[in-house]
Write a structure and sequence with these properties.
Blueprint (H helix, E strand, L loop, with lengths): L7 E3 L20 E3 L20 E3 L20 E3 L20 E3 L20 E3 L19 E3 L20 E3 L20 E3 L20 E3 L20 E3 L25 E3 L7 E2 L10 E4 L7 E2 L3 E2 L5 E4 L13 E2 L5 E3 L21 E2 L11
Length: about 375
């Protein structure tokens, strides 16, 4: 009786295996923390906690969530990560106030269709499950962050285009072979992580992601980039390492009006490049991580204007020569050509340019021009 006015109850890091039905009588409770116990199920009375705004259940042994969970109409945060849940009840779609839902590291193979009705949801985390597909989520009209990494997703619905507020989409370490054309309609998207999928191509519509700042395409099967990639005017980090790229499209030199007016990081290592011929205007670029572990024999890529703090040309096994100056109008803090088998510099360092550190170890320069 004396606990009915209780608003906060912390029972985390104990050895609880069950909860009494009487917990449902705590009608004023707003925060209930049950993290890191040994609970395998929840009592139906959990649904009587009508004032509850936060429910923390991470790190238990839950295999079941009762339907009564849907009665928690004031719940804003629900944490169910690191349990043993194979499914969720359809009633979860009744949590109209829910803003953050974390169900990462469970055994989910599918999601209830009602999940798409959570109109107040801002953040949804489903990492490290066994999901093969996602329900239609086009009604998640407030969503900003989606994390579906480490699942078995084969495709994304075209309806993803309706998530107009989405800012971060993580679908790395899945089985995606292609992206829907509609992905280009995500005008608010700032981060897109597609690392370690099976993508063989990208839709031209990807160039419409005008707010995109970070794009990770590493460890896929890409042999070509779409011309539209040069339209990503907000991009500051691009990782296309560990693909099957043999050359860059001409528009790569147009990124942020060059591969880098705003671009900070470019990763190209572990591809099949044999030549680079497109000009790169580095603008205000901070770091350009250029090809490491490729097969360069002909580098005709000029880097024009701006100030880069670090430019790496690292360990490209068979690079023999640079046919044109790669430096024009840039001040470098560090320029590394280590372990490239470069034999001639051919005006590599242009007179008057500032290079605070020049590392050319393990090459075969006949001379280095001042």
């Amino acid at each position: 009786e004396h606990l009915k006015s209780l608003k906060l109850l912390y029972l985390g890091k104990n050895n609880l295996t069950t909860l009494p039905e009487s917990i449902g009588s705590l009608s004023s409770l707003k925060r209930l923390n049950l993290r890191n116990n040994k609970l395998s199920k929840l009592p139906n009375a959990i649904g009587n906690l009508s004032s509850l705004s936060s429910l923390f259940l991470k790190g238990n042994n839950l295999t079941y969530v009762p339907d009564s969970i849907g009665n928690l109409i004031n719940l804003k945060y629900l944490g169910l990560a690191s349990n043993k849940l194979p499914l969720l009840p359809e009633t979860i779609g009744s949590l109209k106030s829910l803003e953050s839902l974390n169900i990462s590291s469970n055994y989910l193979t599918e999601l209830p269709d009602s999940m798409g009705h959570l109109k107040s949801l801002l953040r949804l985390e489903l990492s490290s499950n066994e999901l093969n597909q996602l329900p239609d989520m086009d009604n998640l009209s407030s969503i900003k962050i989606l994390k579906f990494d480490r699942n078995n997703l084969k495709f994304l619905h075209n309806s993803i285009s309706n998530l107009t507020t989405l800012e971060s989409l993580k679908v790395d370490r899945n089985e995606l072979k292609e992206l829907p054309d509609s992905i280009g309609q995500l005008k608010s998207l700032k981060e897109l992580d597609l690392y370690d999928n099976k993508l063989t191509k990208l839709p031209e519509s990807i160039g419409n992601l005008s707010s995109l700042e970070v794009l990770d395409l590493s460890k896929n099967l890409l042999s070509l980039l779409p011309e539209s990639i040069g339209l990503l005017s907000s991009l500051r980090e691009l990782d296309i390492s560990t693909n099957k790229l043999t050359n860059l499209v001409a528009t790569i030199g147009k990124l942020p009006i060059a591969l880098g007016n705003l671009l900070n990081l470019l990763f190209l290592k572990f591809n099949l490049f044999k030549e680079l011929r497109e000009p790169i205007d580095s603008g205000r670029a901070v770091k350009l991580f250029f090809p490491k572990y490729n097969s360069f024999k002909d580098l005709r890529c000029s880097i024009e204007s701006g100030s880069s703090s670090i430019l790496f040309w690292l360990r490209s096994k068979d690079s023999r020569f640079f046919n044109d100056p790669i430096v024009s109008g840039i001040s470098f803090n560090e320029l590394s050509l280590m372990s490239n088998n470069v034999r001639e510099d051919n005006e590599l360092i242009v007179s008057g340019k500032i290079v605070n550190r020049f590392d050319s170890k393990c090459n075969s320069f006949s001379e280095t021009r001042e």
